[in-house]
Write a structure and sequence with these properties.
Layout lengths: L1 E3 L3 H6 L7 E5 L5 E5 L5 E7 L9 E7 L5 H16 L4 H27 L3 H14 L5 H19 L9 H9 L6 H22 L25 H10 L7 H11 L3 H5 L6 E2 L4 E4 L10 E4 L2 H17 L28 H16 L15 H13 L3 H8 L8 H6 L5 H19 L18
Parallel strand pairs: 1-2
Antiparallel strand pairs: 2-3, 3-4, 4-5, 6-7, 7-8
Helix pairs in contact: 4-5, 5-7, 8-12, 9-11, 13-14, 14-16
Length: 451
Amino acid sequence: MATGTITKRAVDAIKAGTSDLFLWDDDLSGFGVKVTPAGAKVYLLQYRVGGRGNPTRRYTIGKHGALTPDQARTRAKQLAAMVEGGIDPRQAEDEAKAAKVEAQRLADERARLEGELTFSRLAPKFIDWYENDRERRPSSVALARLVIDRYLSPALANKPLPHITRADLQPILDAIPSHKRGMRRAVFAYASTLFSWAMKERGVVEVNPLRAMAKPDAPKARQRVLADDELADLWRATDTLAKPFNAFFRLLVLTAQRRSEVAGMTWAELDRDAQIWVIPAARAKNKSVQLVPLTDAVIAELDQLALAVQVKAQVNDLDGIKWPKLGHVLTTTGRTPISGITKAKNALDKAIGEARGSKEKPAHLEAWRIHDFRRTVATGFQRLGVRFEVTEAVLNHVSGARAGVAGIYQQHDWKDEKRAALKAWEQHIETLIHPKDASNVVPLSAGNQRA
């Protein structure tokens, strides 16, 4: 084993042999240069950590040429100091490499989180899934979009879903005014559904943070019922609305069906001869087919809508009005159901206020919602002596007398009773609009009631 002072001249002078050759430095213990049979010259440090009982190891410092002997010596001294301190340079290097790999992995994961898994990237995918899963009702999908766009996205848009916690979500709920209990509840529910989807369908989160949060209090049950004079003023004010929104509000009052069901009515669901409207299960909120008898006033409204279709199509039928077989009944485009219902209601409220007061000082109705029509009709039925079971059947409620075991074994469709109830309600509306005909209103007879 050759020894000497490692200098450039000394290293250059070493000739390759048939096996590895070494030159060990006289001044710095363990510092040396290795010359391979191929002529490569490499600086190294030979060391032993922890005393003579431990194995000797070698650490490659670098190639001659890329490093000068002085540079290699400086590095060897640094490594020797590590060994003196009980640190294995090779182990330290391996750990540094592992740490670098882990840092890169974390950086890649962070980039993925900040890209693919941000709320703004995943929310549209959730909406697509929600809309197509179980054939959700359009109103439910619309509310999901509103919750995400108005409440969740502004606060969470750039935050990776796996990093969203209760601390991020609670302020969103707290910011919703206390009187908007229904919206608080909706935001909580749709956020929970979104995280459940992310956990079960996508596997991008491990827990649903909403599970650890208290569900907001349910809104108080609404009690709003339109009084007779309010209903009459509302009906008259529909004359100020553009078609078909005037018919939309009248049909809501006359049929007591849900807003989405009336707005989405199609000609294929209607039978003029049988005077019946069949709402398919796919469009009914409770997924139960609903038979709605058509009274004379409803048929008159539908006749006017059908006539408008004929006029637009330039059809002159000598046999009278024919209802179309296809298409939406209430439409402004001819292809889709009506939209802009909120705008139409605002116009209706304005017309009512001006009619009850004046344009300068309108006398608006107490706040009301479209859904209040159903409660108003149910209350009107009670005044007219309609049986509770019939009221439930008209409203298509699967509750009370129609729920549980009774609902399974009681399959009567109440069609005739519903027709009588809606006819009595139609007559009541007529007397509100034309009070002189009040004598025509006859409550359902006692013989039609069951104790």
